Structures are given as C-alpha cells and as structure tokens.
Amino acid sequence: MVNARMNRPLDGMSVLIVDDEVIIGMMLCSEIVRAGGTSIGPVTSVADALIEIESRAIDAVILDAKLVDGSGADLAVYLDERRIPYVVVSGYDSANLPKGLRKAPFIAKPISLPILMEAIESLRRPKAAARSSKPVDPETGITDACGLPPTG
Description:
The structure is a single chain. By secondary structure, this protein is α/β, with parallel strands linked by helices. It is built from six helices and seven strands. The chain has a five-stranded parallel beta sheet with strand order 2-1-3-6-7, with helices on both faces. It has a two-stranded antiparallel sheet with strand order 4-5. A hairpin with a 2-residue loop joins strand 4 (66-67) and strand 5.
C-alpha cells in the first residue's frame, strides 16, 4: 500500500491545468493521470478555467502566468477567494511574475515533472480542514463546534 502511494502521489486529487500552450497542458494532463490524479483541462483562458471551477470540485490548479485572455493573476484572485490551492508555472523568472502570483509555489518552464508533482502533492489539505473555515486546534486537529478556538 505504501509503494502504491509513492507511485501515485496525487491519488484522488482533481487538478485543473490552465496553460496558454495546449501541448504543455496536454503533457501535464498525462502526468497528472500517471501520478494517480484526475486531470481537468487543459484550458487556455481565465474564462474557461472559471467554467471548470464552477462546474466541479477542484483540489488544485496548475496555473500559467500568461493566458490567452489575460494574466494568471486574475484567476489567482478567484482561487484565493475560494481557497483553491495552486502552483504557478511560467517561462518568466519568478521575480518578473505579476505580484498576485508571487506567493504561490513556483515552477519554472521548462518544467521539472518530479518537482511539479511534489509541489502539487504539498497542496493537499486534510479534507476536514479544507471544508471548514472554523479554527482547528493544531495539536488535536479538532474544530470547536461553535467555531471558537478550543480552550484550556
């Protein structure tokens, strides 16, 4: 079982691929499936990404900085509001990324697939914490039923 997990690190994750280069997006889709995830896309625009996000559950996004209808930073605002984690991939140097993309994990193109898979796997959040905006006690992992931090 541990070996299966190591060979399929994205098992059970649905990952949306948003990249203006369709060939790269298709390659990333294949790699997501090979790693055990469900690939969605590729899509090349903010508009198409929004349609996918509104129509299904998305666990993580691979987001290019440059898209056919604008910047990945525009989509990043939407992802942040919905607490959908993402990894930025770009041919730009990280220092030249739009400001809204600089806080996310960054993978430079040409993409190192092992590093990308590790970055996506690191975005995996415990399901209970992801569904709740209530405070979680870091020691016990328990959320107070009223949304208050656990006491004493």
